[in-house]
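Hi R.,

Here's the input for the adenosine-5'-diphosphate complex you asked about:
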Amino acid sequence: MTAPGRRRTTAHVLANASFRRLWTAMSVCSLGDWLNILALTALAGNLTAGDDYRVQSLAIGGVFIAKMLPAVLLGPLAGVFADRFDRRTTMVAADLARFAVVLSIPLIGSYQWIIIATLLVECANLFWVPAKDATVPNLVPNEQLESANRLNLLVTYGSAPVAALLFAALSLAGDVLTTVVPGMAGVDPTSLALVVNACAYLVSAGLIFTLRGLPRRDGGISTPSVLRQIVEGWRYVGGNRLVRGLIIGMLGAFAAGGAVVGVAKIYVAALGGGDAAYGVVFGAVFVGMALGMFFGLRLLRELSRRRLFGLAITVAGLVLVAIALIHNLAIVVMLTVVLGACAGIAWIIGYTLIGLEVEDAMRGRTFAFLQSTARVTLLLVVAAANPLAALFGAHSFALGRVSYQFDGSNLVLVLGGALAVGVGLLALRHMDDRKGVPLSEDLIAAVRGERFGPGAAEELPGLFVAFEGGEGSGKTTQSRMIAIWLRDQGHDVVQTREPGSTKVGMRLRAILLDAAERGLSPRAEALMYAADRAEHVEKVIHPALRRGAIVVCDRYVDSSLAYQGAGRDLAPEDVSKVNAWATGGLVPHLTVLIDVPPSVGLTRLGGAADRIEAEPLDFHERVRKEFRALAAATPERYLVVDGTLPPEKITQTIQDRMRDILPDPVPRETEDATGTMPVIRD
Ligand SMILES: Nc1ncnc2c1ncn2[C@@H]1O[C@H](COP(=O)(O)OP(=O)(O)O)[C@@H](O)[C@H]1O
Ligand SMILES: Cc1cn([C@H]2C[C@H](O)[C@@H](COP(=O)(O)OP(=O)(O)O)O2)c(=O)[nH]c1=O
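And here is the predicted structure with adenosine-5'-diphosphate in place:
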């Protein structure tokens, strides 16, 4: 429903001629920015090509640091200055300055000048970006701002692979030119990329100069300090388990990415690749990211998002380690695409989950926190990567006759990979919403396109305990005893049963258990039990769990799996799917299975047999077998008790098991409140 609507607003934003012009300028600038990173790091590597491995690593690291330092140190300051000047003049001046500085780099051609020029270009960026951000709301009505921001984001990152491929092509052209044209022999092949980069800024200046509809003076834009955003954001993020997991995962992925970006140039050089190969590897990351965002999510649509998040980061780490160890450029490029895909999956899930799970008022701050910490993480990692690689130096190991090269860049990549694996596993553990279900099982089901089984009630504050077993096994007796015991301890307890605990449920129960109702089809029967359950979860169980109560339920999903799945011989996956849908994936924290042979249970029952009780003995045998198989599949979620024992003994066993999972009967907040009450004397 939202997609067509979205497309319409996007189209609308671009129909605005002024915005289109600004957006084109932004796109051209982004392309120039990415070309700039690639060309300058490549040039730094080329200028120090004859030097020691260490010198080369440090030279490239220096460029990255020069690129990021101004934003971190002077960002907020520049935002304030940008507010005081006319925005069009600011942007045009910044563009012309960038044009001149970038053009001077190939003309001067010294490493020191690369660093100074980078710092200057970044300082100009500090004025250009806030002026541009502040201009967008002047050109676009409020309701289209979001689409405008989305388009902005699209060109910022979408231009990266284009720039990488352009850089590869320009490097090749540069190589050809320097060999063919006699006067150009001493010129670095990256010069061509830098000239194109400079021209991009010139084009942007022209576009912005001719922009109509800009007010001369402006309102205020303020960029809060990076440090303040981090401190404020942590206050919220630190307290929320899910968001904490997400942020740790995303930052870990970022740090691993930083390791790749930092050492890519020297690593590719060590593999015998030139500037063009560097461009291809760089582009491969982004191509992979785009593929991951579009196809990865579709392919594994049925896997729990949270699991996929941790899994993607872990796999990214493993792939990174493989990249570090395999010395073959073609394989490295292919693995880099996979790496990018995993990163893309993790990034988009992280963003979506934060969007979904973080309350509205905190969302902006959470994103700001994420962006600030990501920037600082990237700076630290890129800054540390090259010196670390330099420190380790280049080593060659002899394994028999074969010699194996292991340099500082390999070490940095292995460390980056190990970090991602660690963080990915941490995220998997931290955020798992399907505890007890093996990941492999979920993955196989997801690849086959099967909807994953139900998730647990973990996110809700209450406790959900189900009682299962055959006819006359003693569920009703035991659930009553346990409810009384829990209430005695001060817990809020909701004792309920299936089928028939809601208004609609009672009518369904009448049909389901009426012995006169002959020939009800198995599918209809399964759907009616599921309908009763859907109503029960929505009206009774979920609200109780949400308010923190303990729900003691006589029969739940397992009864359908056993009676309709095994007893009636319906496909268990179908029954499972229908029920997962009906319950919204709600699984009990604990299921108590009271196991008795049907021959015993059925003889305990008094009165006339209902429609199900009247089934033959082998039906009940199948039911019992299925209950036991379900318990054996995830033993940590089950307690199986022998129902032929005396009732008190059974109650005792259940109580012992439940003590481990019972919450504090007096809620913590209440305790805190009573703890601060003034003491009443006399
Ligand atoms: N452990 C037990 N040993 C013997 N009889 C029992 C035991 N538990 C329950 N009963 C009796 O068996 C009958 C069925 O018990 P009930 O709790 O209604 O089972 P269910 O709800 O599983 O059908 C009742 O008459 C009850 O008193
Ligand atoms: C909840 C549920 C119950 N049933 C059957 C089992 C029981 O025979 C009957 C429930 O009847 P009930 O009188 O509640 O029996 P019990 O005391 O044994 O729980 O419905 C199913 O077949 N599928 C289900 O999903």
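One thing worth noting: The domain at 455-669 is CATH 3.40.50.300 (Rossmann fold).

Cheers,
M.
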